[in-house]
Structure formats: structure tokens, C-alpha cells
Design goal:
alpha/beta; globular
């Protein structure tokens, strides 16, 4: 069976209008550093930029949540049965909460809970830092590496949308030259339907990170 490539994604996902612009294909392209596929237009699926240099490895096709190739394997790994019996997937508990730190509460999104959790892990040296998104303008965000409370406050108050999270691309780029012990990638639920293949794939993509956490 021939390997399906980004061209197949264009035909089977983009042209059918079911691309959610999650950015999985762009972020985890084997040749991401060469810009083979990129987002070229706002509110539109990614496109080939250097098609002639594509390795045609098929990772983009496999990781796309709309191809459903990895569904059975991932559902078995994470103990997921179906949305009828498990509409929210696997979870240990659901809580309504907010930060107790006044600065996180004032500047954070949705009560500053995520920043509070990250700050706790940094202070306890459970992680070295977290890749978070900073809003520069409406629908414009950039990734930042936060390893202190000051950094977290500076990047607080993200305006969420359904576009690609810059955290994923930054994860690939940052870990190439660095040796980071433990890292947290912030991928909030407000970013619609992130590719569920990514939590497992991050561990493979980064040879320097022993563990990746997903919030």
C-alpha cells in the first residue's frame, strides 16, 4: 500500500472542507524546519510551500484527526470506548476552580488556573518550564518559554480561537538545540479539537525531553 502524503490530505480533508486548522500536520512535519507546508492565508488550511522537497513520509496524514487512522490504537491505549458512554473521555474528576494568587486571578484566562498549576510545578522543580502562547493582537499569538511567575504573568490572558496553537511549532523548534528535563505544553480546550495523536507523538518527536505534560 502506498504511503499517503500531504497531497492526499488536501484531496481528502481540505477540499472536503473538514480541515479544522489544528496545525498538527504543520507542526509535526518531518521537514518542519524547512517550511515544506505552512499556513499561508488566514482562516484557511495549510498549503504546500516547497512540494518538491516533501519527504512523503506520511506523518502529516497519520496525525490529522480527520483521517482517523490512529483512532483504534489510541482509543485502546487511553481506554476510550465511545462518545455515547464517555462523552468527555477519561477523567478522574471535574472541578470548578480559580487561582488564589491575586495576580494570576487578575491577568489570567478563566480564573488563572493553568498558570497556577504551571507555577506550582516550576517552583517544586517538577518541570523546567512551559511553552505558552502570548496574545499580541486579535488572532495573533506567539509561543514563549516560561520558567518563572513573571513570565507566566507576562503571557497571561490569551484570547483563544480555533487556529493553530504556536506552542506546537515552538515545541519542535525549541527542543532541537536544548536539553530540557521535563516540559509542559499548554494546549487549552478552547482551541477546538486538538489532534489527540499529539500527546503520544510529542514523546517521540523530542529526543531531549524525558516527559511531556499536556494541560
Amino acid at each position: 500500500m502506498s504511503i499517503k502524503t500531504f497531497q492526499n490530505l488536501i484531496e481528502e480533508v481540505h477540499e472536503k472542507g473538514i480541515c479544522q486548522e489544528c496545525g498538527g500536520c504543520v507542526s509535526f512535519c518531518s521537514s518542519a524546519e524547512y517550511g515544506i507546508i505552512e499556513f499561508k492565508e488566514p482562516n484557511a488550511p495549510p498549503q504546500y510551500v516547497r512540494k518538491d522537497q516533501c519527504l512523503e513520509c506520511g506523518i502529516c496524514y497519520h496525525i490529522c484527526p480527520q483521517t482517523h487512522i490512529l483512532d483504534n490504537e489510541l482509543n485502546k491505549t487511553y481506554g476510550f470506548e465511545n462518545y455515547d458512554s464517555m462523552p468527555l473521555g477519561n477523567f478522574k474528576g471535574i472541578y470548578s476552580c480559580q487561582a488564589t494568587d491575586e495576580e494570576f486571578l487578575k491577568y489570567g484566562t478563566d480564573g488563572g488556573v493553568v498558570n497556577s498549576l504551571i507555577n506550582y510545578m516550576i517552583e517544586k522543580k517538577l518541570i523546567d518550564g512551559a511553552i505558552v502562547a502570548q496574545t499580541n493582537a486579535p488572532f495573533s499569538r506567539e509561543a514563549n518559554f516560561a520558567d518563572s511567575k513573571y513570565d507566566l504573568i507576562k503571557t497571561s490572558g490569551a484570547k483563544l480561537d480555533a487556529r493553530i496553537t504556536p506552542s506546537l511549532i515552538a515545541f519542535v523548534n525549541i527542543f532541537s538545540p536544548l536539553s530540557v528535563r521535563v516540559t509542559t505544553v499548554v494546549y487549552l480546550s478552547g482551541e477546538l479539537n486538538p489532534p489527540k495523536e499529539i500527546p503520544a507523538y510529542i514523546l517521540v518527536k523530542s529526543s531531549h525531553a524525558r516527559h511531556a505534560g499536556l494541560i
